[in-house]
């Protein structure tokens, strides 16, 4: 027995949980009436259920004739009704008659109608409200979705009456449907009776404190719902208390989205109490609130105590105040695989605490930590930990717009040799890169740089000449020399190239042929041998340093080229892989697996 206020005043209504629509279809008329007629004290409710029974197919698959007759009478009475306007659609009675004609046509085609649909139609008639086709259709499907379209109180009331005994609908999505507090109260009543709804989304509806209280109180009893989304409802500290009480009592909820609300310090403390005492939640989203200081610290402490949460979205808050705790969380967590700390004012000092714990982490697979004021060196340290720790399980690292140093690109290349890793970052700091990549040894011999590059890459002189001779004219111009050296990532600036061209072009005709190229190499090797035979002090040491510097500059030029490619494809990459889409798909897949 339960007291509800679906129609008129409150009354007692009894539903037999053992009876389903499939059972009902196998019963004859009298048996169906016995099972489906509720124990009521109101003649209107009794009449409504009897009317629904008349139109339900019997076990031989035939439809009662009374169903069609009743529907024709309903259509006839509608034509005589005076003009009126519904609060939801604003449609006059002429539009109402058209819709009823459509329903009559459906009956004439003998399309079967479930008990929920019949209940919805009869309730609409009693409430004098126009039935909504999308609601009627959805009552026989697995999802009832009415997003970004206002639903009037009477329309929602009729839908909720039908949902009470519905066994088909698993997802109810009323995002931005303007249901308000009244609608939330109706849905709370549904959750007390319905054991088949798994996902409830009432985001951006301004349900108010009374509405969220009703939903949470119902979920203290409900043992079916898996996912609840109450984001964007301007919930405050008082409402955080209702959510806390729900989390402490509910043992089946897997996902909670309370983002885009107005929880502050006290709200964070209350929510943390619920998180600590809950042992079923896998995914929690508290992004875009005002959680900071004590509230933020208590949330992090609760995540350390909780033993089930695998995904936590804390983005766009003030969790820099809990940096020490976040570091400790990274070190001790055994369940957390996804953490979003985007835009939390995390500085270099806070990042140092985070990295201290991150070195010991063995569970995290996805980390989003962009839009924070820490500097580029900490990006490098973060990736070094991922690269050097074989027990670290990071697969996705999103730094968003954080700038990185050139060495960061080299670390990416090294890390991807060992594991699959998606990394999103901002621009590459190119000041040092350009300085290093254009160092042309102006105080040294550019011929030595060229020959050393050829030696380190183990290339043949003829291959180098052919790659520089782009027009296959058997000679190399200054333009071809410059473009060829750039394509080979040989580090020389314009001034060094001029000096090299003058050295190679013996006959001073503006072009270098292969004979001149070979002669320059022989002269270089001859001078090098003479120095070695003379045994001049420091020659070997200088040569070693020169080789190291050339190797470094070749590497810098390669990374510079890589940075240019990354910069040009950043936008395309972000469009190709949407982080928000990844969050949502992963969240739902995790909850489905757990279910």
Description:
54% of the residues lie in helices and 7% in strands. The chain is an alpha/beta fold and 595 residues long. It has a domain at 439-574: Recoverin, domain 1. The chain has an 11-stranded parallel sheet with strand order 3-4-5-6-7-8-9-10-11-12-13. A two-stranded antiparallel ribbon has the order 1-2.
Which tags fit this structure?
595 residues; alpha/beta; Recoverin, domain 1; eleven-stranded parallel beta sheet; disordered N terminus
Strand and helix layout:
Blueprint: E1 2-4, E2 11-13, H1 21-24, H2 29-36, H3 43-54, H4 65-79, H5 93-108, H6 115-127, H7 133-138, E3 143-145, H8 153-163, E4 171-173, H9 180-193, E5 199-201, H10 208-221, E6 227-229, H11 237-249, E7 255-257, H12 265-277, E8 283-285, H13 293-305, E9 311-313, H14 323-332, E10 338-340, H15 348-358, E11 366-368, H16 376-388, E12 396-398, H17 406-416, E13 422-424, H18 431-437, H19 446-456, H20 461-468, E14 475-476, H21 478-487, H22 494-504, E15 512-513, H23 514-534, H24 539-576, H25 579-594
Parallel strand pairs: 3-4, 4-5, 5-6, 6-7, 7-8, 8-9, 9-10, 10-11, 11-12, 12-13
Antiparallel strand pairs: 1-2, 14-15
Question: Going by CATH, what is the homologous superfamily of the domain at 439-574?
Answer: EF-hand
Strand order of the largest sheet: 3-4-5-6-7-8-9-10-11-12-13
Oligomer: single chain
Distance between the termini: 29 Å
Helix proportion of residues, in percent? 40-55%
The CATH topology annotation of the domain at 439-574 reads as Recoverin, domain 1
Overall geometry: elongated
Number of strand elements: 15
CATH architectural name of the domain at 439-574: Orthogonal Bundle
Beta-sheet strand percentage? Answer: 5-15%
Taking pLDDT < 50 over at least 5 consecutive residues as the criterion, the unreliable ranges are 1-46, 52-97, 105-112, 431-443, 564-588
Largest beta sheet, briefly? Answer: 11 strands, parallel
Number of helices: 25
């Amino acid at each position: 027995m339960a007291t509800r206020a679906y129609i008129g005043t409150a009354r007692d209504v009894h539903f037999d949980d053992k009876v389903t629509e499939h059972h009902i279809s196998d019963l004859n008329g009298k048996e169906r009436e016995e099972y489906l007629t509720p124990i009521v004290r109101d003649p209107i409710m009794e009449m409504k259920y009897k009317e629904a029974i008349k139109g339900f197919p019997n076990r031989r698959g035939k439809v009662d004739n009374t169903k069609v007759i009743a529907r024709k009478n309903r259509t006839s009475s509608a034509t005589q009704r005076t003009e009126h306007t519904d609060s939801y659609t604003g449609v006059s009675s002429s539009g109402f008659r058209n819709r009823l004609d459509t329903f009559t046509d459906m009956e004439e085609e003998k399309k079967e109608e479930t008990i929920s649909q019949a209940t919805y139609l009869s309730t609409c008639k009693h409430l004098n409200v126009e039935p909504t086709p999308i609601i009627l259709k959805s009552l026989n499907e697995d999802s009832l979705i009415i997003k970004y379209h206002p639903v009037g109180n009477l329309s929602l009331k009729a839908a909720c009456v039908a949902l009470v005994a519905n066994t088909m609908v698993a997802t109810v999505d009323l995002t931005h449907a303007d249901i308000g507090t009244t609608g939330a109260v109706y849905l709370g009543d549904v959750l007390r009776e319905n054991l088949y709804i798994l996902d409830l989304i009432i985001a951006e509806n301004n349900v108010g404190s009374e509405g969220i209280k009703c939903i949470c109180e119902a979920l203290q009893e409900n043992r079916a719902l898996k996912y609840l989304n109450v984001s964007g409802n301007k919930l405050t500290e008082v409402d955080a208390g209702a959510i806390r009480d729900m989390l402490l009592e509910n043992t089946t909820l897997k996902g909670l989205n309370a983002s885009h609300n107005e929880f502050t310090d006290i709200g964070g403390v209350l929510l943390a109490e619920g998180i600590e005492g809950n042992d079923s939640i896998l995914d929690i989203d508290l992004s875009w609130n005002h959680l900071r200081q004590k509230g933020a610290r208590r949330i992090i402490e609760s995540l350390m105590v909780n033993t089930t949460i695998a995904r936590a979205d804390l983005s766009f808050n003030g969790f820099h105040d809990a940096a020490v705790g976040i570091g400790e969380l990274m070190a001790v967590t055994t369940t957390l695989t996804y953490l979003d700390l985007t835009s939390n004012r995390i500085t270099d000092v806070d990042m140092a605490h985070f990295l201290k714990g991150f070195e010991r982490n063995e569970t995290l697979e996805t980390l989003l930590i962009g839009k924070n004021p820490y500097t580029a060196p900490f990006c490098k340290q973060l990736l070094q930990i991922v690269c050097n720790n074989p027990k670290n399980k990071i697969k996705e690292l999103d730094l968003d717009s954080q700038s990185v140093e050139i060495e960061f690109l080299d670390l990416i290349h090294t890390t991807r040799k060992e594991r699959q890793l998606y990394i999103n970052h901002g621009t590459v700091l190119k000041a040092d890169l350009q300085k290093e990549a254009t160092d042309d040894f102006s105080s040294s011999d550019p011929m030595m740089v060229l020959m050393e590059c050829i030696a380190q890459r183990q290339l043949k002189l003829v291959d180098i000449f052919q790659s520089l001779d782009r027009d296959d004219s058997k000679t190399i111009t200054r333009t071809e020399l410059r473009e060829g050296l750039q394509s080979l990532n040989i580090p020389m600036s314009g001034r060094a190239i001029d000096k090299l061209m003058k050295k190679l072009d013996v006959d001073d005709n503006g072009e270098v042929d292969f004979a001149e190229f070979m002669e320059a190499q022989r002269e270089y090797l001859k001078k090098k041998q003479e120095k070695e035979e003379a045994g001049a002090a420091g020659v070997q040491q200088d040569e070693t340093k020169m080789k190291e510097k050339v190797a470094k500059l070749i590497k810098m030029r390669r990374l510079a080229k890589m940075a240019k490619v990354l910069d040009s494809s950043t936008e395309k990459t972000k469009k190709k892989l949407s982080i928000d889409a990844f969050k949502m798909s992963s969240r739902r897949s995790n909850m489905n697996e757990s279910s």
